[in-house]
């Protein structure tokens, strides 16, 4: 009991520290920056400069109150803490709207508001607090997602009434068609990578189980592929693929060349094989031998044991390998934009070349969201498939 109280105290101190850091970010870092157009660098404004110090103090009261309640919190006060954190998250887009109304001259149609470091850091810390509270309260997965989506809905509702001057939104408006296409290309490359690496990885894992002497050699090759920097691997593939496309018309007709989707997909699959093979092998080897012996005693063949016993029991660990591969592929696909593969990475590199932070964010934020959603969905699936768990466990 004392140990549990000690752990609870440490957890609440984490919340206090998060709120303290959020207050520091709120008061000491720029809240927003305002620029008359896309070319001119923006001018930073602190929270007090946005709407006056009394309003900034009033806006920071939920952060102060959350930290104060966390200092005195017990299990029965978790709902209060969750409500306060949600109040802060809902107030985040409302403060952006207030900043836009206060600072943007309506006579300047090209003027824009960019989210400052203080606002970004405050949002990050509040989301960490929300994750901490959701875990402590053991909320169902769908409830946690609703909590995360609530501030997004408020942000979307604020766009028509003033937040259309938000620089990130204006970058999207100027590239909306390309943005949708880039998301589709990004997802397609990730899906193809995961499917191919799963097929090849399972095949390799089955092979090294059958021929244990080859295990060290296979893993040495896969480890070597992981050590090659992504840009270097793209460069190494450029020559061979260009040669193949020039000598085989059917490859060229498929769009295979030294740049584009082909080298990107090959490189992504090469990077994905190590976690996929390793997790598949661990999953297959981790099945209880007693269960396998019982299956043999029932007269099952080797193929039947694999398909009906070993693979179903190994599925939770196998999904963990798919989760790791998927999240890794989502991030690495951004780099593939450098060789003309498309995807959201194109906005990131365009933004870096133009020193346009919001254009970088237009590419980076969807990648982050994709990775978080894929991680949560596949981790939840793996938990549900764990033997002995009830259908509602892990939600």
UniProtKB/TrEMBL annotation:
Subcellular location: Cell membrane
TM ranges: 12-30, 50-71, 78-101, 113-133, 145-163, 183-208, 220-243, 255-274, 329-349, 355-378
Entry-linked Pfam families: BPD_transp_1 (PF00528)
Cellular component, GO annotation: plasma membrane
Keywords tagged on the record: Membrane, Transmembrane, Transmembrane helix, Transport
PROSITE patterns (UniProt xref): ABC_TM1
Domain of life (superkingdom): Bacteria
Gene Ontology BP term (one): glycine betaine transport
Domain ABC transmembrane type-1: from-to ranges: 183-378
Membrane topology listed for this record: Multi-pass membrane protein
Main subcellular location: membrane
UniProt cross-references to PANTHER family, sorted A to Z: GLYCINE BETAINE UPTAKE SYSTEM PERMEASE PROTEIN YEHY (PTHR30177:SF30), GLYCINE BETAINE/L-PROLINE TRANSPORT SYSTEM PERMEASE PROTEIN PROW (PTHR30177)
Family statement drawn from the similarity comment of this UniProt entry: Belongs to the binding-protein-dependent transport system permease family.
Name the record gives this protein: Osmoprotectant transport system permease protein
Organism: Halomonas cupida
């Amino acid at each position: 009991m004392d140990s549990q109280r000690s752990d609870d105290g440490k957890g609440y101190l984490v919340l206090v520290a998060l709120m303290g850091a959020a207050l520091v970010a709120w008061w000491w870092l720029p809240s927003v920056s305002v620029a008359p157009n896309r070319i001119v660098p923006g001018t930073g404004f602190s929270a007090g400069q946005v709407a006056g110090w009394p309003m900034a103090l009033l806006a920071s009261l939920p952060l102060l109150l959350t930290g104060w309640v966390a200092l005195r919190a017990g299990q029965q006060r978790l709902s209060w803490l969750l409500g306060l954190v949600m109040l802060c998250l809902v107030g985040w887009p409302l403060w952006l709207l207030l900043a836009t109304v206060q600072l943007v001259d309506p006579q300047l149609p090209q003027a824009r508001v960019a989210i400052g470091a203080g606002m970004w850091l405050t949002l990050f810390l509040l989301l960490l607090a929300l994750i901490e509270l959701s875990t402590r309260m053991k909320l169902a997965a769908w409830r946690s997602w609703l909590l995360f989506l609530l501030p997004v809905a408020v942000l979307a509702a604020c766009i028509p009434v003033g937040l259309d001057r938000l620089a990130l939104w204006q970058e999207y408006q100027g590239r909306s068609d390309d943005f949708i296409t880039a998301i589709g290309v990004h997802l397609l490359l990730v899906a193809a990578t995961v499917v191919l690496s799963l097929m090849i990885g399972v095949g390799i894992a089955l092979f090294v189980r059958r021929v244990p002497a080859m295990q060290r050699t296979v893993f040495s090759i896969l480890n070597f592929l992981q050590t090659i920097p992504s840009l270097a691997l793209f460069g190494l593939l450029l020559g061979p693929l260009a040669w193949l496309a020039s000598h085989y018309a059917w490859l060229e007709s498929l769009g295979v060349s030294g740049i584009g989707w082909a080298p990107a997909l090959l490189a992504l699959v090469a990077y994905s094989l190590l976690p996929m093979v390793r997790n598949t092998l661990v999953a297959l080897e981790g099945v209880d031998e007693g269960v396998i012996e019982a299956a043999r005693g029932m007269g099952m063949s080797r193929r039947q044991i694999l398909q009906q016993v070993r693979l179903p029991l190994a599925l939770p660990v196998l999904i963990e390998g798919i989760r790791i591969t998927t999240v890794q592929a989502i991030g690495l696909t951004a780099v593939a934009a450098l060789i003309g593969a498309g995807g959201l990475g194109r906005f990131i590199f365009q933004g870096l070349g133009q020193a346009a932070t919001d254009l970088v964010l237009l590419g980076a934020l969807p990648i982050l969201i994709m990775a978080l959603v894929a991680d949560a969905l596949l981790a939840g699936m793996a938990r549900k498939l764990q033997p002995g768990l009830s259908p509602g466990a892990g939600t």
